[in-house]
Amino acid sequence: MPLLTLSLLRLHNPPDKASLLRTLSSIPDFLVLASEPRYSVIRPSKIDVSILTATPWDLLLLLHGPIPISVQYLIAAEYTVTAGIPSRLLSTYPSRNAKLLAEAPNVKLTGALEKAQERVKDSAQNLELSPDLLRFMDELTAEYGEKPVTMLNLLNFKREGKGAYYRYGQ
Fold this sequence. Notes:
The chain is of the alpha+beta class.
């Protein structure tokens, strides 16, 4: 299981995402994923709460190693976590992601969201639909329309939690 560096970055103003991503993309087999963090469904409540919730992050990167010194000057704040990613998942990610994005326009909506709105809770902290989450989904729809949106789940399990999460996904 390869260890990768997950980095949340706050860039200096004005943010120069293009230069940073161009440099990281030029390093062979280094940049796995680059994304704009838009919304946290479950907000941190125990570990590193202050930095994670108070910093307006510009980029989320998944890298084969730390960010090179040559681009550190672009970064105002950084939060990193080393994460193990199964080799099989990592090796097939580019092709699987491309396939999902290509198939996305043909996926028909089921109406499940409309039905779920009858059971809205105050908060999404327990993975439940909340007014805040619905508002965010409306913003995404307004910005992206019917285009696909990728969601990244970062999971940290207690010893007994992995089995519970597996059952939840069934």
